[in-house]
Amino acid sequence: MSSYIFRRLLLMIPTLIGIMTINFFLVQVAPGGPVEQAIAKVQGIGGDATNRMGTGDGSELMTRNTQANSSYRGAQGIDPEFIAQLERQYGFDKPLVERYFMMLWNYARFDFGDSFYRDIKVTDLLLEKMPVSISLGLWTTLLVYLISIPLGIKKASRHNSQFDIWTSTLVITGYAIPAFLFAIMLIVVFAGGTYFSWFPLRGLTSDNFDQLSLVGKITDYFWHLALPVTASVIGSFAALTMLTKNAFLDEIGKQYVVTAKAKGCTEKRVLYGHIFRNAMLLVIAGMPAALIGIFLTGSMLIEVIFSLDGLGLLGFESVVNRDYPVIFGSLYIFTLVGLVLKLVTDIAYTVIDPRINFAERS
């Protein structure tokens, strides 16, 4: 098994390089890069793309109003020296291939550079936003699995009963309604929208968090997380519940289950002692995708609605602003985490079912 793990770790290197290569060249040829956004800003039609730039030199160069021989959109009438200044600032004064290999070398050392617009290292920025996303993802994942697996097993053991029908209706309804709509409903009802003001509307902690006792800090932390985690859980546990149910239903009719029942094993012993290991393989197979979805794509709108400054919101803003160091740094970290989770999943296969041996297969 150790040799298999070592080979998988080695395979992560070309996988990472391939993913980063494809995205690097796609982003480089996409219109609306940071230089173009900076040009739009100084022309008064852009956003916050030039927060890092000094206004003096840019304004002076703009007043020259010289015709620029540039491939950037909107660069007509802008001094070429100003364009060159922007290219140096954002690192576009070097050839494309040189920038590519510099990126690979820096990322191999986990050096992601500085954000274009925030005056902070990308690693520090990711670490700053990570507690919010980890809090949402960790507690959402934990609650989803604690609810979905027992509920799916119960539904399988009572298939086609009134309990199965009613819970299926609730599960499908929860799955059909987007999580952000639940989030808005929770705010309206419980966060001072119309009815009650039981929970805070924004932030992960209160302003006086540092002055609270240990028990007070824990209470304040979960008080702020209650509504966003609830909204995330409601929209996430349906698929896992039905997957667990169907996996157990597939195993219930097999011969080894009939034999176990004929020997006098209780229903609990049959479900958890015999069926559980085989049925849970499908559930474990979907764990990496579920974790990535909950941590990243599933949390962005929740973070926006509840004013939680996490990785999901950071990634969205970085794409909009073409903040390439943050985009590629986030992509690199998330890809690496996904590959590691896939390896952990394979190891969990062998723990749950000792008959599976990836090392012998390879």
UniProtKB/TrEMBL annotation:
Keyword Flavoprotein belongs to the record: no
TM annotation in the entry: 9-27, 132-153, 174-201, 221-244, 279-306, 326-352
Membrane topology reported for the UniProt record: Multi-pass membrane protein
CDD domains noted in UniProt: TM_PBP2
Cited InterPro entries: MetI-like, MetI-like_sf
SUPFAM superfamilies in the cross-refs: MetI-like (SSF161098)
Keyword Transmembrane helix recorded: yes
Residue ranges that the Swiss-Prot or TrEMBL entry lists as coiled coil: none
Main localization (coarse): membrane
Keywords linked to the UniProt accession: Cell membrane, Membrane, Transmembrane, Transmembrane helix, Transport
Residues annotated as domain ABC transmembrane type-1: 130-345
One Pfam family, short name: BPD_transp_1
Origin: domain of life: Bacteria
Compartments (UniProt record): Cell membrane
PANTHER family assigned to the protein according to its UniProt record, in alphabetical order: INNER MEMBRANE ABC TRANSPORTER, INNER MEMBRANE ABC TRANSPORTER PERMEASE PROTEIN YEJB
Family classification: Belongs to the binding-protein-dependent transport system permease family.
Name of the molecule in the record: Microcin C ABC transporter permease YejB
Lineage of producing organism: Bacteria, Pseudomonadati, Pseudomonadota, Gammaproteobacteria, Alteromonadales
